[in-house]
Amino acid sequence: MKRKLKGRGVAASWYGIARTATIDRAGAWAELDDGGTAKVVTGVTEIGEGILTLLSQVAAEELGVRPEQVTIGDNDTARSPEAAHAGATRQTYMIGNSVALACREARSRLFDEMSKVWDVPVDDLRSFDGFLWAENTNKRITMEEAVDTCKKRGVVPVGSGSFTAHGTGLDPVDGTGSPWQAYVFGTQVAEVEVDTITGEVQVLGIWAAHDVGRAINPRGVEGQIEGGVVQGLGQALMEDYQTQDGHAVTHGFAKYILPTSLDVPQINSIVVEDPDPLSPLGAKGIGEPALVPTAPAVMNAIYDAIGVRIRDLPATPEKVLAALQEKRREAQTAA
Amino acid sequence: MPDLNIDFTVNGRKVARKVDPSRRLLDLLRDDLTLTGTKEGCGAGECGTCSVFVDGKLVKSCLMPAAKAQGADIETVEGLAAPGELTPVQRAFHKTGASQCGFCIPGMVMAATSALRENPNAGIEEIKERMGGNICRCTGYTKIFEAVEIARDVIAGKLPQTALNQDGAASSFIGHNTRRLDAPSKVSGRLKYAGDMDMQGMLHMQVLRSPHAHARIVKIDTSRAEALPGVHCVITSEDVPGTDGFGVFVHDQPIMARGKVRHVGEAVAAVAADTVRIAREATRLIEVEYEELPGLYDPEDALKEGAPVIHDYAADNVVKHIPVRKGDIEKGFAEADIILTDDFSTQQVEHAYLEPEAGIAYVDHDDVVTVISPSQNITHHRHMLSHIIDKPINKVRFIMSPVGGGFGGKEDMIYQGMLALAAMKTHRPIKLVFTREESFIASAKRHPSRTHYKMGLTRDGRITAIEFSMLSDGGAYGMSSEGVMRKAAILSCGPYEIHNLKVDTRVVYTNNTPSGAFRTFGGMQAQFATESMMDMAAEKLGLDPFEIRRRNMMKAGSLTHTQQKLNSASIGTVLEAAEKACRWESGAPTVRGETRGDLGGPDTRQPCTLGARFAEAATQIEKAKVAS
User: How many Å apart are CA A70 and CA A53, to the nearest integer?
Assistant: First the structure.
């Protein structure tokens, strides 16, 4: 047997978007502000995934300004509308859509005034990248001028939005129910190299294909996939919180081993867009789903490489070696 | 030991300070000089968030005594560029989206800067090695590597400065790689996380935690602690004015242990004092008399007849059981040509966000009890706290501070109640920052699981029935266990249309560290088992693993495991996308790694062998010799 053996494995997965088996909801307020800028306030935002930037893109698109001209208010239960919580792969879907709805209302206030000022049908008005214009006319002004005009007519262009996702509870006896209105699917392939002397597994490549509905910020989507894959890899190969009679024996990073820069495979993200038909943005989500198939893909790849099936995570070098020894013993017995 | 007078340089400015010799360089920078861009992620030199330059060398400031700064030239993340400006490394991080939660990022920027200062031509292997002492939990490092390579090439003049700019504008901001708006504050260390915040008159909290996994609290005597000069209040569950109890689904956890402790590390009492040190000393003066109880450490034991009861309301120790039934499994198994049974297990996993739990509470001018913390669920927290402190909702306010990584681990209100209570008692702002060890032992983990699996298939690879039974260890409190079991059950059998199935997920109380929400919420534990079974079935039937999945996958019109009709299902598209992208060589999964022709492509990395930085240095020395 060669010392280092390579193999590949695949795993598929699925996931539901937003809170499970319940009616999820999120609210937001928006205002087209002086100077062609915008304010958006919603109850919950950034936990690192990039939602602030995504919401700014959504607001910019809906209002006709630029993302950097959007200010997102602080997450504050006493100063902002309820948007529930930051989790459940719900930020883009729930809060993104509620911000889109709030911005549409604010924009329509502005457009209503401008259509009267210019005497053009409101449907002919467009705004993008700091400008507002009427199609097929030479009427074109900056958003700063448009907001100023609107306010001088006594109208502050504000809006609010509430977005709902209709999930139903599960029947307590047979579990029937419609827990989510949007689902995503994913598939990952892992390529590994196993050192049969040390038992160490290195993941060399991951191909991660995920449906996200619509990628509002493709780089952000990749970032979520890469982060999810590496957390999945950690769980597959090294992370293990252990207790002895309830006492933690891995209570620091010296004993609780996490993936570092040296453990990271080349991650090839393939972003699939199957738009959600039930929401304004068409986007679904990626935060949690990215992690689901990694560990089984790696275990299937280890099997492909060395013929050893790891059923108990993580596949530490000790476990891989023990399984290899067991396999050799079985082979000898059979012979 | 008396304080020492030391003189040193920080970011080019001379500084003279009197320091307590027991303090670390990290404390000196953060507390005395308010240079909070340098973070404390572990306090043990293991994570790299506190990286600074000392006389030009990358140093973990949590490991260096402050007194050793005498005469040193120290550079922190704040000193890398003038205010309002960013270095090429920082701009590259901004461009590629290398910062997510941002907590590791100042340290990462320092390590990247160090790598390129040490070797401006460093290759990717050397860069990875030089950054190996810095942990990132969000990004998967990939965008960080990309950033360092761009920065290297811009600094070396191989790429134009414009390579650091944002991708060009499109006709829409949807689908555009807009740079992260919060990145400049993260790469420069300017963003204030809760632990970086300071308020006038602020007191510091420390928590006394249980040394026992399961014990009755006979008596708590706080008098000695209260008498310690500098202590402003000592709180226990006795001080809770309202209905104590929090949890995501069942409110079974008091903000501090009430009557008994159920896991090691559970909060028992808390002290607010002028300094962290006084507060810590006071916790040691609290006398708690415990009567140890038999503990439960294995979920199977929790279900046994006569097992110790962890919570009175749940005499059988079951937090939740979720059943899902569809079709007729007996009929399904009877139709099968092969039946596979197996068992799988997954471990308890720590979120390991780099930002340990932290928060500040105060009572404002309108008598609003306000808590600032990196909570993932401020909405629910304010509801629960209003019951606990017996105030109307509009007198309870939660502000979500920048979250330095959450992944579900910051959904539980495990410390905000104590902060609020102490603020109410003292009418002073109270701050608490967990140590890494506290974060490990007191916060929820991913549920460890054991799954028994039985799958029936026809010879052509169609699944006829699945029986799936999962037992999870919920630990001492309910937290998100109920929801995790629900999601695990709903997703259990994967993206396949299964006509006959019987799924049960159960979670029980034990005296282990509680389990709770963690990215995938039960989805990965369940699907790890399913996806392992799919490959084992494919091998038995001689089918390609993509093919067996296609034969069973959900389609438009399929009924899910909970009998929801799907209008569409993109699984076919993603299977094909992955298969094509990786140039998959088809065949049954029969340990054919050695003979595969699709391995080692340009879309994989080389196996890691340590020493890249020495190898490259040696090559350069050789080149220099030849040149001379």
Answer: 9
Which of B366, B376, B492, B564 should one mutate to test binding to chain A, selecting the residue with the greatest count of A CBs within 10 A? B564
Clarify whether A61 is annotated catalytic. Answer: no
Q: pLDDT for A244-264, tens place per residue?
A: 999 999 999 999 999 999 999
**Are B274 and B373 contained in the same domain?**
yes
Per-residue pLDDT tens over the stretch B500-537:
999 999 999 999 999 999 999 999 999 999 999 999 99
B323: cis peptide before it, omega within 30°? no
B471-507 tens-digit pLDDT: 999 999 999 999 999 999 999 999 999 999 999 999 9
As a CATH number, domain A23-163 is: 3.30.365.10
Mean pLDDT, range B378-395, rounded to an integer: 98
In terms of phi and psi (left: phi > 0; alpha: psi -120 to 50; beta: otherwise), the region of B497 is beta
Residue among A200, A226, A239, A288 flagged as catalytic: A288
Percent of chain B clearing pLDDT 90 (strictly above) = 95
For residues B328-347, average pLDDT: 98
B584-607: pLDDT as tens digits: 999 999 999 999 999 999 999 999
Q: Between chains, do A300 and B531 touch, taking CB under 8 Å as contact?
A: yes
User: How far away is chain B from the Cα of A119, in angstroms, using its nearest Cα?
Assistant: 27
Looking at residue B65, the DSSP 8-state letter turns out to be: B
Model confidence band, residue A63 (pLDDT cutoffs 50, 70, 90): very high
In chain A, residues with a C-beta closer than 8 Å to the C-beta of B545 are: 9-10, 300
When CB atoms are compared, the residue of A8, A75, A314 closest to B598 is A8
Classify burial at B392, counting beta carbons within 10 Å of its beta carbon; exposed 0-12, middle 13-18, buried 19 or more.
Answer: exposed
Task: Show Cβ contacts of residue B175 under 8 Å, excluding neighbours closer than 6 positions.
Answer: A214, A215, A216, A217, A218
Helix/strand/coil for B310 = coil
Whether the complex's predicted ipTM is more than 0.90 is answered with yes
Q: What are B390-411's pLDDT values in tens digits?
A: 999 999 999 999 999 999 999 9
Q: Which of B385, B405, B436 is the last residue of a domain?
A: B436
Report the distance separating Cα B464 and Cα B497, nearest Å.
10
Distance from the Cα of A107 to chain B's closest Cα (Å) equals: 16
Residue B156's domain spans which residues?
4-167+182-187
How near does any CA of chain A get to the CA of B605, in Å? 5
Query: Using the beta-carbon criterion (under 8 Å), do A253 and B436 form an inter-chain contact?
Result: yes
Which chain A residues are Cβ-neighbours of B144 within 8 angstroms?
A: 261
Chain A residue whose CA is closest to B438: A251
CATH class for the region spanning A4-16+182-334: alpha beta
Residues 125-144 of A with CB under 8 A from B: 128-129
Query: Domain residue spans in chain A?
Result: 4-16+182-334, 23-163
Contacts of B581 in chain A (CB under 8 A): 189, 207, 209, 268, 270
Mean pLDDT score, B599-621 = 82
Check CB contact under 8 Å for B527 and A20: no
A288 residue type, one letter: E
- Helix ranges (H only) for B570-627 are 571-581, 612-627
Picking from A168, A243, A258, A269 by the largest number of B CB atoms within 10 A of its own CB, the best residue to mutate is A243
For the domain that residue B43 is a member of, what is the CATH number?
A: 3.10.20.30
